[in-house]
Amino acid sequence: MKRYLIILLLFGASSLVTFAQRHHGKHDFDPAKFKAEMEQFITTEACLTPQEASQFFPLFNEMLRKERALFDQISTLQRVKPATEQGCAEAVRTRDMIEIQIKELQQQYHNRFLKLLPACKVYDALRAQHRFHRQMFKREVCKNRK
Known about the structure:
Elements: H1 2-23, H2 31-45, H3 50-78, H4 85-116, H5 119-145
Helix pairs in contact: 2-5, 3-4
């Protein structure tokens, strides 16, 4: 009986190792692939012509880079909780200021987009970006559940 139990445990352990090896690296994020998929999705959903896309995406990607820098500031701010009430209050105020900067940045770029494209296409592009991020998030959640 002990022999069968040992064999069963060894088989189970080897199965886990094999499973881990097969799934290792499947959750690697490829920024270039993500960007290409997002641009394709937005182009399709907003019905952008190749000329419109070539004008829109450099500006759009510039906005995303600047947004990312601000989001990184928020992330850095939240890594360690301040030790005092005053420190916490300052952290809250700083985060609020950064979030306002993000909205102002978006507003500036949205106005620039409106000078390049018809308003309906800008609306559809921004909506498509939101939908793309939601779909990618849902896809990752489903992958992680399996």
